[in-house]
Amino acid sequence: MNRDNLLVKQPFDPGCYTEQVNQLLERMTVREKVGQLNLDHVSDSGDLTDCNLGERSSMEAEAEKVRRGLVGTMLMKGREEANYFQKVAVEESRLGIPLLFGFDVIHGHKTVFPVPLGGASTWDPQMLEEAEEYAAREAYADGINWIYAPMIDLCRDPRWGRVAEGAGEDPLLGSLIAQAKVRGLQTVNPETGYPYVAACFKHFCGYGLSQGGRDYEECETSPRTLFMDYMKPYQAAVDAGALSTMSAFSVLNGQAVTGSRYYLTEVLREQFGFRGFVCSDYGAVKELVHHRVAADRKEAAAQALLAGVDEDMGSHAFADYCEALYEEDQRFAEAVDEAVRRILSVKFAVGLFEFPYFPEEAEKYMLAPEAREAARNVGRHSIVLLKNQEKILPLSPSKKYFLTGPLSDNVEEMPGAWAQYHPGTNVISVKMALEEAGLDFLQSDGCPFTGKYCFDSQDDSGFAKALKMAEECDEIIYVCGEKAAWSGENRGRVSIDLPKQQYRYLRELKKTGRKIISVLMCGRAMSCQELAESSDALVLAWHLGTEAGHSIADVLLGSYSPSGRLPITFPCYTGQVPYYHSWLSSGRSRESLIRYKDGENGPLYPFGYGLSYAEITYDAVHISRNRWKADETIRLEVVLTNHSEMDAYEVVQAYYQDVVSSLPTPDRKLCGFTKILVPAGSTVKAQMLIPVERLALMTLDLKEVVEPGEFILFVGRDSMCGESARIVVE
Ligand code: BGC
To answer: What are phi and psi of 674, to 5 degrees?
Structure first.
């Protein structure tokens, strides 16, 4: 991939604080240095080490640690509490070094945005950058100046619950989103001239490869695939100037990442040029003992420190052992000094030495009307229309609808995987939004979530009443899918289909003979074949956040023509995964040879797929010439015509195939895209720039090379589009 293409200016170069940092370092005792490498978790349960916000005495115990310089960063939120600790750090500790307060703000803070996989369906990095600005401002208003995001682990196995937190399967889309999110989170606060927060992209590296979708398990792929695909978003985040990153807790290709000097120093710093600091994931340092690569926490601390971890989250191993290590061996002393330098540089880079406190006025950012409007907008751009038989959508004002399903009037689940801190108080449900819009409908859940895990529910007590209501209506809107807690950390699924009970209910609804418009909410790709077949229309709505209901109503009612496109393949069966569009060409083609005895080869919906209400046609693709050099950029144009009476956005996608190459290359792979508004009844020209370097292959010694020869370009509305042009790279 062409790095120039991803390169953005780095206004917050931590390197420019070297002098101040060194001056401070000279005055620090070893204990104070080690304190900077320690993260304390101030949780409501107080379970870990430090303090329980509920009890004043524990607050004070923690404050005493801060006063003695034993804490560098904290995992917590809350402006008042943060200012309290900050005051102790700045005014009462010997050197007055301010604290970083880190928190998970994965898809918005108080104003919750779509889960990241949903947001990726916008194919609109600029829009996601703006969304992160709102998140950063709200987080800052809540006493947070360091955000554990963006989560940019590329993932091709939707059994893994954390697929919801990332941008899907593709390295180009994932990289452009990663870069946009870092920039958005590190937006400059006009009041201070420094970013509101430091971003912490995660989880470096390869965590999305967790085998079998089982979280925390081994990650394995060839180095070639790792660097060709999985590493790309991390590189993009580094290029965008991310100030910190988090080391994964997993074992990748035989190495525990948190103890790996290869990944954390040679790749991350020496190869990618990262200049911020590395924080371990929660407990990852002590987990080196569980991986049995360290005998005890002291050995784990030593290993992680030398590997390149600067901040220890959740293990307390640096705090307990780094002082002794410092005295024992010069190598550790140097590593501690270097880690302190990196952490202090970031503290300077976000302006903490000048502006340590969170101002009360920042409160105005919380759930501001503009933030909610932005969430609604990102929400409607995230929705993917998967099926619309006989143009049953948009809904008709002259019909009466039966709104049903476990998520039809649900505010708890809509915020999604990482919004557990914001119970559904400000959330708009589908029912609320349709009522507001004046639609004629009756509502009953019919099939609520019940049972311990809600997968095994047999409860059909609501069916009879609901089916009677259905009979009184013309058509059915069935809002079904996953609970928020079915995706996210350690929330794998062995089956990525709807729970049986939702199908039992669907079959009953079907018997009424009414047409069915299904709205699917989820945090992963789903193999929902029966749902797709039984529905006349299928709208993929993910978990859209605070404004979910409004965004969905905008699409259902046709005030917005759906423009979302899948950032991940939807397989037909769980057994097909991993399934993705850029597989390396096989010796026996997928089209001609069925691989399974009991099912098809093909996906339910391919990568890039999504329908529109508008009918948009593509004219022939125009490329100015057909011979190119490796350092040039191809300009590609295609004329689109909207034959309908509705404005619509179109995501024009380009894929490539290297016709003959020295190593196997993808059958086809995304190499460019552009999202463009095509007004009703008009014709527009979409342009796309594709640096030839994006057509590079990865060699076995991990170098990217564009091999001379012929390339096929496929341009269209999803990854199944037909051949558009052939070019030659000289
Ligand atoms: C997760 C991280 C998260 C951290 C702090 C860990 O369990 O893997 O993604 O940032 O906790 O909450």
So the answer is: -150, 145
CA–CA dist 725, 712 (Å, integer): 6
Length of the chain: 730
Cβ-in-10-Å burial (0-12, 13-18, 19+) of 502 comes to buried
Q: By C-alpha distance, which of 243, 326, 197 is closest to 17?
A: 243
CB 336 within 8 A of CB 342: no
Kindly give the distance from the C-alpha atom of residue 90 to the centroid of ligand 1, in angstroms, as a whole number.
Answer: 27
| 202 C-beta closer than 6 A to ligand 1 | yes
10-residue block means of pLDDT along the chain (730 residues)?
35 78 97 97 53 56 93 93 96 98 96 97 98 97 97 98 98 98 95 94 98 96 98 97 97 98 98 97 97 98 98 95 97 98 96 96 89 98 98 98 97 88 80 98 94 78 97 98 95 95 97 98 98 98 97 98 98 96 90 86 96 97 95 97 98 98 97 98 97 98 98 98 96
Residue closest to 400 by CA, chosen among 472, 305, 314, 311: 472
Q: Identify whether the C-beta of residue 150 lies closer than 8 Å to the C-beta of residue 181.
A: yes
Q: Classify the C-alpha dihedral 333-335-336-340 as positive or negative.
A: positive
Phi/psi at 183 (nearest 5 deg)?
Answer: -60, -45
Q: Write down the residue that tokens 């969905």 correspond to.
A: 552
Please, are residues 288 and 247 in contact by the beta-carbon 8 Å criterion?
Answer: no
What are the CA-CA distances from residue 145 to residues 236, 310, 417, 516 (Å)? 22, 18, 22, 46
Structure tokens at 241: 């100037």
Catalytic residue among 281, 409, 536, 718: 281
Name the one residue in this structure whose structure tokens are 């695909």: 229
- In 368-494, at which residue ranges do the beta strands (DSSP E only) sit? 384-388, 401-404, 441-444, 475-481
536 counts as catalytic: no
The pTM (predicted TM-score) of the whole model is: 0.96
User: 146, 312, 489: which to mutate for ligand 1, most atoms within 8 A of CB?
Assistant: 489
Give the pLDDT score at 1: 33
Q: How far apart are CA 358 and CA 376, in angstroms?
A: 28
∠ CA(523), CA(525), CA(530), 5° rounding? 110
| C-alpha dist (Å) from residue 291 to 133, 217, 258, 283, 524 | 38, 10, 11, 12, 29
Q: What is the token pair recorded at 16? A: 């420019």
Query: Which pairing describes strands 198-204 and 704-705: parallel, antiparallel, or unpaired?
Result: unpaired
Question: Residue 236 corresponds to which tokens in the numbers above?
Answer: 């993009």
pLDDT at 458: 84
Which residue puts its alpha carbon closest to atom 11 of ligand 1? 282
